[in-house]
Amino acid sequence: MNDVWNQIRLSWTWLTASAQWHGDDGIPHRLLQHVIYSGVSLACAAVIGLALGLLVGHTGRGGFVVVSLANLARAIPTFGLVVYVVLVHYSITAALIALVALAVPPILVNTYEGLRGVDADAKDAASGMGMTGWGVLWRAEVPMALPLILLGLRTSAIQVVATATIVAYPGFGGLGRYIIDGLARNDYQLVVGGTVLVVLLALIVQIVFAALRRLVVSPGLLGTARSS
Amino acid sequence: MDIDWGWIGDHTGTLGDHALIHIRLALLPVLFGLLISLPAGLACRRWQWLYAPVLTVSNVLYAIPSLALFMLFIQYTGLSASTVMIPLTLYSLSVLIPNVVDGLGAVSEPVRQAATAMGFGTLRRLVQVELPIAVPVVIAGVRVAAVSSISLVAIGQLIGQGGLGYDIIRGSQLQFQTQILAASVLIVLLALATDAVLVIVQRLLTPWSRARRRTS
């Protein structure tokens, strides 16, 4: 227990030292970098994953292929991919591509599964009410699939926030900088401080998605939907 | 993309050794995770109030970056294999426990009652009826845990635990693309092979699902 207490005290001293709050290596700058990297990657992944997932889920064609490809993509070691693409072309865009590749599968699979799980009777009823394909998609399928879609986005967001630490390895900053530098310098305080910040950021993401879920998911669904 | 095939040819032995270390570092944690999550999942089914806190803890755990979690364990277990394996075990728990609970929850009440009516006690019903029915959901969790664990072990090299992560970092230090690419491709292949084995295991464990498909 002493160790744990010590750890908390160490990270607290580090977090509250005023030197950490200024300049290019200061927490605000690193945090902003981290948030931008994660946000951009997640946004790109969301566009790709949602578009493909909605297309495949709505038409019901090619589902097996898409899910298999997504599972294949899950097997790609992000660390290797980041190091490789950065070596081929040293730029932050290259590093972010690796993060996008990490974030697409959960969004894609959950969107597809969400649409596929929509009750066929509900879809029939929507068509019966005179909705066209788009209408059925936007006004019946998407709202009913929303809990799963949000779950996919949340999973991706958390993975991206956690994994964005490794873009510091090829030298693009972000919160991972503290962890990698601390490790190289045997400065444990730095490692713990960086870790605490990443975990806090991930927790904020969780809270944001919990709030989103309350806001955008129809209450009729929340009552029966499994909380996860 | 310049791939130095000669280098790969010369290093098949070392790459193979690293792949073996890699798979051991990746899959032992999943095995431990499975061994822990079965009783833990059962406990969550038995005492329902336990499930919500367990789920929260595992969600939070999952949010901790692997690199960070490895770091936090350094001061307890040093630069040893446990420093990589304990965090990976925790990650696999966060995938497996919900799946075990869901899998057991998927057993329909009539089936349970039928088993009881046939004179099965609680333990026998669990082992012979409930667990087999839960197998597909549990294995689905094991597949996710195993694949992500195999790709996460690569990061373990940053604290010097070998495996294919060694080749990724070495290749990065030497600016040698072939080594990084070879190691990454091998990691994907290991993950795919493991996944395929798990699918086969599931088929073997649930022969009835095939029989049903044939008759329908």
Automatic annotation (TrEMBL), chain A:
Domain ABC transmembrane type-1 stretches: 31-209
A GO cellular component entry from the record: plasma membrane
Keywords: Membrane, Transmembrane, Transmembrane helix, Transport
InterPro entries xref list: ABC_transp_perm/SBD, MetI-like, MetI-like_sf
Membrane-spanning ranges: 35-57, 78-104, 144-169, 190-212
Domain of life: Bacteria
Matches recorded under Gene3D superfamilies: MetI-like
BP GO annotations: glycine betaine transport; transmembrane transport
Subcellular localization, as worded in the UniProt entry: Cell membrane; Membrane
Matches recorded under Pfam families: BPD_transp_1 (PF00528)
Membrane-topology annotation of the record: Multi-pass membrane protein
UniProt keyword annotation of ATP-binding present: no
Similarity comment: family membership: Belongs to the binding-protein-dependent transport system permease family.
Record's protein name: ABC transporter permease subunit
Source organism of this protein record: Actinomadura physcomitrii
Automatic annotation (TrEMBL), chain B:
Segments passing through the bilayer: 20-42, 49-74, 80-101, 133-160, 180-205
Entries under PROSITE patterns matching the protein: ABC_TM1 (PS50928)
One GO cellular component term: plasma membrane
GO biological process assignments: glycine betaine transport; transmembrane transport
Alphabetic keyword roster: Membrane, Transmembrane, Transmembrane helix, Transport
Domain ABC transmembrane type-1, first and last residues per copy: 19-198
Keyword Cytoplasm assigned: no
Record's subcellular location: Cell membrane; Membrane
Membrane topology: Multi-pass membrane protein
Family affiliation: Belongs to the binding-protein-dependent transport system permease family.
UniProt name for this protein: ABC transporter permease subunit
